Automatic annotation (TrEMBL):
CDD domains: AdoMet_MTases. Belongs to the class I-like SAM-binding methyltransferase superfamily. RNA M5U methyltransferase family. This is 23S rRNA m(5)U-1939 methyltransferase. The keyword Lipid metabolism does not apply. The lineage of its organism: Bacteria, Bacillati, Bacillota, Clostridia, Lachnospirales. Pfam families: TRAM, tRNA_U5-meth_tr. It comes from Muricomes intestini. Residues 1-58 form the TRAM domain.
Amino acid sequence: MQKNDVVTVTIEDIGVNGEGIGKVDGYTLFIKDGIIGDTVEAKIMKAKKNYGYARLMNIIEPSSYRVEPRCPIARRCGGCQLQEMSYEKQLEFKNNKVRGNLERIGSFAPKFLEQVMEPIVGMDEPFYYRNKAQFPFGADKEGNPITGFYAGRTHNIIANTDCAIGVPVNKEILGLILAFMKKYKVSAYDEKTGKGLIRHALIRYGFTTKEIMVCLVINGTLIPHSEELIEELRQVEGMTSISISRNIKRTNVIMGDSYKVLWGQGFITDYIGKTKYQISPLSFYQVNPVQTEKLYGLALEYAGLQGDETVWDLYCGIGTISLFLAQKAKKVYGVEIVPQAIEDARNNAKINRITNAEFYVGKAEEVLPEYYRKYGEEHPGEEAHADVIVVDPPRKGCEESVLKTMAEMKPEKIVYVSCDSATLARDLKYLRGKGYEVEKGRAVDLFPMTVHCEICVEMCRKK
Ligand code: SAH
């Protein structure tokens, strides 16, 4: 296989970045925009020894799973990868991806997985589900301000204010900001030169409260004529919080380190189930509230709490899962690396009148082993014990020292919430070696139209 060769290939799978995967005489090709079941003509752009990248030239026979994308710019935009594949097929694909990784990386037998894995939880309406969006600003060729999304793997902005997975009110807000910029000649930030003012607009929407937050990230300390912009934005129904965040660094990090309220309050409120959360511009909060409730409900169900348990929630963020668990447990300890998140967690406990949750700032791989060691020192002949340990790590999964201490604390149950089935599989394999076995597991689709999903797994200590 060589560069510029044109081949006919059938797409059999989707890769980690959403590209179609097909084989020609055993040679693997990655083809962007190909979906499972398509037979396509593709031109090789880059040929490595065992695999290559090809460009989709022509769909010879469209897959029966192919659908018209909701969004006209779906192919160019880097936000979604699967809009051209039916939602049912997306769910099947994600379910298979999770099981495949559990088999391949976790060494689980397919028959066993058949018994313990429940079917993926999808959405009834898989569009307009995101409660948060961060829109970059730039300029078109004529110098007019634009906003939208980055094209896949680039920082070129594709103008679009009408994203099909964001909330509809985004369009109205972005329209007001763009009109304001034009009227007062307020410049957009240019990554190449480091000049210009408006970098990003963060918009958050509370699905249950209908409260809206707008935070403008700026390359400076103030926006000229900002009172005019505030006057416009506060007319939007539900507007609760308008702020700016200063970010003068030449980095890909979107938000600055702090924010300043221009109008209203510094946060919006939202509920997941009966639990109330205050979310500031810098807080981490799951982007799909409808599915988050199902995911946390599952974590709670798997934890099987009776009311007298001691529970640890590692990688707890703003305490979302911890506060869910605290209502059914004797005591919950949350551990999280970001100090502001722990501030939010403590505040969220307070506004929900939850008094049996305690939070530690630090790395899970330091806090937990340290707690275990100290406990042993202070209670000779005893070991620190937990009844249930919940973990929800970032994509890279848990460090071995965390898993080791978890097993040493001999919880009856471990509930593992994961956004990456490959590292999940690796970590489950380790825990199986320490006397735990998977009881149940289930994927929940928090990110329709993208390749991602969450997985929740219950492990029990073998007798
Ligand atoms: N359970 C929370 C957050 C999960 S996201 C929720 O559902 O809202 C993963 C969290 O792990 C993030 O908040 C991140 O800041 C935190 N984190 C990352 N590395 C960590 C580490 N080594 N120790 C503790 N927390 C960590």
